[in-house]
Amino acid sequence: MSTAAAVPVLDNTFGALFLGVVLAMGLWGASTVQMYYYYDQYPRDAWSMKALVITVWSLDTAHQGLITHSAYNYLIRNYFNPAHLLVLEKTLLDMVLLNAIICQIVQGFFIYRAWRLSRHNLVLVTFLSLFSLGQSLSILIYYIKSFNFKTLAQLSDLFILEKVLNVFGVVSDFSIAGTLIFLLQRSRTGWKTTDSIVNRLILFSINTGAVTSLCAIFALIFVSVYPNTFIYITFYMLISKMYTNSLLATLNARSSVRGRGNSEDSASTSIHLSRMPNDVAKARTSLLTIHPLP
Q1: Contact 107, 176 (CB under 8 A)
Q2: Contact between residue 287 and residue 194 where contact means Cβ atoms under 8 Å apart
Q3: What is the rounded distance in angstroms from the CA atom of residue 194 to the CA atom of residue 147?
Q4: H or E element: which one contains 280?
Q5: Residue 87 forms beta bridges with which residues?
Q6: CB-based burial label for 31 (10 Å; 0-12, 13-18, 19+)
Q7: Cβ(119)–Cβ(100) under 8 Å?
Q8: Which of 242, 262, 272 is nearest to 63 (CA)?
Q9: For 121-140, what is the HEC assignment?
Q10: In 3D, which of 68, 10, 61, 63 has the Cα closest to residue 35?
Q11: Rg of the chain on CA atoms, in Å
Q12: What stretches pass through the bilayer (predicted)?
């Protein structure tokens, strides 16, 4: 009886961490399937794009390994050792750094699309980059400050910084998505086919921006309302997965966004373009080239 009483209730702490690992594993599986689909369907993509995909997926795989290791150490290896529940696993901390790297890479990809779509508007890109760099720098500062921490209780000293980095994440995602939507809206030509593509791209930009923002929003809410639980960690674990899946979904959606299949429809698309006015045809070609693949 005394042993059972010594074990704390773990539902909203390590139970939340465990659920985060399980959900993250599901999203990692989805990104793995998407990566296979990408390499199978787009073998002619530039080597730089292929390298980007495998790099982001590899980093996300390492992230999954780190959080799985943390959960295993807490809940399995140290089962019935409540004292270890106070210890800060280094792998749990390292996943914070990988989060920053993955977020920066994927946000950089979307910012580059905005740069192409805005016809190389340096002021706009600089504005978007500041929010993205602010998020990455705040995560890096968080990692450096907590590097020598030994217990989870010490992380409470960094709750303000935790809120700051999540605010940067939300603002950055909304700014990038909002910019892409504005630029696409401005690209309307009045030609039904072209505007149909624009509508699809706008909807896709809203979806990809929303999924990454929601994780940061929920992490911010729960770290503010329930700072003594790990519920916010559940959502924080999913952020890199959302970014990875958003990147791959963007690349894999090219055919559907263009409203055509593979080889058979290429000829009909060329014929259709030839019937358009020159300026409209150029706009449509530009949209297909720039968005979603730079």
Answers
A1: yes
A2: yes
A3: 51
A4: helix 278-290
A5: 151
A6: buried
A7: no
A8: 242
A9: CHHHHHHHHHHHHHHHHHHH
A10: 61
A11: 22
A12: 16-39, 92-115, 122-144, 164-185, 197-223, 229-251
- Tell me if residue 42 falls in helix, strand or coil: coil
Confidence of residue 284 (pLDDT cuts 50, 70, 90): very low
Tell me phi and psi for residue 100, to 5 degrees.
-60, -45
Contact call for residues 123 and 185 (beta carbons, < 8 A): no
Beta bridge partners of 151: 87
Show Cβ contacts of residue 75 under 8 Å, excluding neighbours closer than 6 positions. 14, 18
**pLDDT tens sequence across 128-142:** 999 999 989 999 999
Rounded to whole angstroms, the Cα distance separating 71 from 64 reads: 11
The structural domains of the chain, ordered by start, are 2-255+267-290 (1.20.1070)
Dist CA 294 CA 53 (whole Å): 14
pLDDT in tens, 47-81: 999 999 999 999 999 999 999 999 999 999 988 88
Identity of the residue numbered 291? H
Model pLDDT for residues 68-122, shown as the tens digit of each residue? 999 999 999 988 888 888 999 999 999 999 999 999 999 999 999 889 888 889 9
Q: Give phi and psi for 260, each to the nearest 5.
A: -150, 170
pLDDT digits (tens, 9 = 90+) for 204-231: 677 667 778 888 888 888 888 888 888 9
Phi-psi region of 259 (alpha: psi -120 to 50; beta: other; left: phi over 0): left
Task: Work out the number of other CB atoms within 10 angstroms of the CB of residue 255.
Answer: 13
Helix (H) or strand (E) holding 107: helix 90-117
Residues 196-199: contacts with CB within 8 Å, 24+ apart? 196/259, 197/257, 197/258, 197/259, 197/284, 197/287, 197/288, 198/287
Rounded to two decimals, the pTM is 0.81
The Cα–Cα gap between 226 and 210 comes to: 23
